[in-house]
Design brief:
alpha/beta; single chain; UDP N-Acetylglucosamine Acyltransferase, domain 1; 7 helices; five-stranded parallel sheet; six-stranded mixed sheet; 258 residues
């Protein structure tokens, strides 16, 4: 019991830069209090004391503003930040290391008793403020749900879901675009992921510029290799001011996007 308590406090001190001491966390963090009360309610629920479990859960909601059904399964090292307005349904499952912010709903869309109505969050999932995850599907490990998103279908591991209804952003393509944009001097995450035509054009420009730059570098490698085989200096084959590696003009790109 005390080991779990120390683990919970250490976790909050690690993840929340506003936490200044263990005593502050112990006395002033409603997310921590809600998890403690849920563990007691869940223990009662599993042993058939259903009304008593709901009564403990109800008091937890009254004290913390966080409503967790006693039937929900919550793993270790789960961090509930702020927490006000969170609702977690009976059949929800939250994996180890998840982070949940205020106003989140892990709810259901089915009225069939006994069916899996609420979502399962894999390990390391982050759910942003006021997001709604509705249905008996799985959100894959290390996925991210953006603030205000409404998710009604499975999210692959490592992907990001944003918007209403939520759109799935695959991690690999998103990371590649971010790396290309970083070389241009700005962040691709600053570009909205919606259907705005300017945003779509910007994403296309980033992908196109990245591809052209890579092709130029490949051509230069081929020219240098051929020149070496012929025993001629590279400068005799191509202009001295030609681009010889992958490099973007950050100042020019910044001017274009203003």
């Amino acid at each position: 019991m005390f080991q779990r308590l120390r683990e919970d406090i250490a976790l909050i001190l690690q993840r929340d830069p506003a936490a200044r001491s263990a005593w502050e966390v112990l006395t002033c963090y409603p997310g921590l209090h809600a998890l403690w009360m849920h563990r007691r309610a869940h223990w009662l629920w599993q042993r058939g004391f259903r009304w008593l479990a709901r009564w403990v859960s109800h008091w937890g909601r009254w004290l913390t503003g966080i409503e967790i059904h006693p039937g929900a399964k919550i793993g270790r090292k789960v961090f509930i930040d702020h927490g006000m307005g969170i609702v977690i349904g009976e059949m929800a499952e939250i994996g180890e290391g998840c982070t949940i912010y205020q106003g989140v709903t892990l709810g259901g869309t089915s009225l069939v008793k006994g069916a899996k109505r609420h979502p399962t969050l894999g390990p390391g999932v982050i759910v942003g403020a006021n997001a709604c995850v509705l249905g008996g599907f799985t959100v894959g490990a290390n996925a991210r749900i953006g603030s205000g998103a409404v998710v009604t279908k499975p999210v692959p591991a490592g992907a990001t879901a944003v918007g209403n209804p939520a759109r799935i952003i695959e991690a690999e393509s998103d990371q590649a675009r971010e790396e290309a944009a970083a070389r241009m001097g700005f962040s691709a995450y600053g570009v909205t992921q919606g259907d705005d035509p300017v945003a779509r054009a910007m994403r296309g420009l980033i992908d196109s510029a990245s591809g052209h730059d890579h092709q130029i570098a490949l051509l230069w490698n081929a020219v240098c290799k051929l020149s070496a085989e012929l025993g001629r200096p590279v400068a005799d084959c191509v202009p001295c001011d030609a681009q010889r590696d992958e490099a973007f003009d950050a100042a020019e790109m910044s001017r274009l996007v203003k």
